[in-house]
From TrEMBL:
InterPro entries: Aldolase_TIM, NrdG, Organic_radical-activating, Radical_activat_CS, rSAM, rSAM_sf. This is Anaerobic ribonucleoside-triphosphate reductase-activating protein. Keywords: 4Fe-4S, Iron, Iron-sulfur, Metal-binding, Oxidoreductase, S-adenosyl-L-methionine. It is an enzyme of class 1 (oxidoreductase). Activation of anaerobic ribonucleoside-triphosphate reductase under anaerobic conditions by generation of an organic free radical, using S-adenosylmethionine and reduced flavodoxin as cosubstrates to produce 5'-deoxy-adenosine. It comes from the Bacteria.
Amino acid sequence: MNYHRYYSIDVVNGPGTRCTLFVAGCVHQCRGCYNKSTWSLNSGCLFTQELEDQIIHDLQNKEIKRQGLSLSGGDPLHPQNVPTILKLVQRVKNECDAKDIWLWTGYKLDELTAQQQAVLAHIDVLIDGKFVQDLADPKLIWRGSSNQVVHHLHQK
Ligand code: SF4
């Protein structure tokens, strides 16, 4: 998997103070996409074991407490990204105490493959659906257009 940006401290992409990773690769080609440079799987830089370890380390940091991890792009659920994303979210849940994981994807929840659904077992919030320019609304929170849905998964 390749990625474009990693922010070790981020207060924009999700609630609270977070770590945020923007991955490379997206098939959806939404009109008005603000992140076109991430569409190619080969764009950006290689996501290394060192960076995976760094994210875990940052989430475990007790001096600058993060609420969780945000995964965006590009599309973290691009089929070619799923194995790496699955390994990362499993580590976050196993090694980082009480961190939430938010994930943005252009796929709809009800069209995810079994492989993509395996990631959902480990995330807390999924924002799904393509960005539709005609439905764009700057007043929306955590989503760009009104067709997208913020799914709070696994709520007790
Ligand atoms: S899903 Fe997101 S990154 Fe992909 S084309 Fe649409 S807006 Fe851009």
